[in-house]
Amino acid sequence: MVVESADNDAKKQVNQVNDLITQNVNALIFIAQDATSALAGVKAANNANIPVIAVDEKPESGDGKLATYIATDSVKASHDLATWMFKQIGGSGEIGLLTGVLGATAQVQRTQGFEDALKENPGIKVVATETANWDETQAYKKVQTMLQGNPDIKAVFGESDAMGLGAAKAAKDQGKTIVSVGIDGFPTMVAAIKSGLTQATQAQIPYQMGQLAVKDSLLIVTGQASQVPAEQYQNTVLVTKDNAATVDTTLFYGPNVR
């Protein structure tokens, strides 16, 4: 197995995909940096008759073809987390929203899930929406300004753990108490829930997703592609103060991440 890291650089990833194609790999497990640039890599692999297994980020639709797509059911995860958060503030009040990189598959789906939950809770009012690009520092700065302009905010919904942590730290530094949540299930977020800094995360299970991607690639290259579904969505685990002390984060990210 050849493993490459794009270091969050979409252009670098396209070059890496092309290099792997020239190495005549049998299959390509692809965690795209962004949906738009990923399409070029998918098409190049298609032209070389190399099956593509996309994980987490779905390449932009076009004439590229995926052997399968494996991801978290982000719409449901976000909907359920937002519903939980709304209950924590009594089903009414002002809140803020921190979105991820605009246009990214996860951002689109998590925003959709949040908005679906919002429609079911008319007492909740979103008074501030900011894009923090999955980044804790950006989230911290955005929420500082958000709280200064909207002092009655009761909660902030972060579309990632990093943003949820940034929101919680910004509120704490301003002497405010809010409900702050995120999505990922990072060990740092679970620790923050245990300490009371943040309140909840929807934990993804990328370790399981990676295992599934490898198993599927083996099925595909051994002529058993018919056994592999076109799309496969994984559930999440809601982590709150009620289970943070007992949840095993190695189930989410593997035995080497704690």
UniProtKB/TrEMBL annotation:
Pfam families: Peripla_BP_4. Residues 4-224 form the Periplasmic binding protein domain. It comes from the Bacteria. GO terms for cellular component: cell envelope. Its main location: other. Keywords: Signal. It is found in: Cell envelope. InterPro entries: Peripla_BP_I, SBP_2_dom. GO terms for molecular function: carbohydrate binding. Belongs to the bacterial solute-binding protein 2 family. PANTHER family: D-ALLOSE-BINDING PERIPLASMIC PROTEIN-RELATED. This is Sugar ABC transporter substrate-binding protein. The lineage of its organism: Bacteria, Bacillati, Actinomycetota, Actinomycetes, Nakamurellales. The gene is rbsB-2.
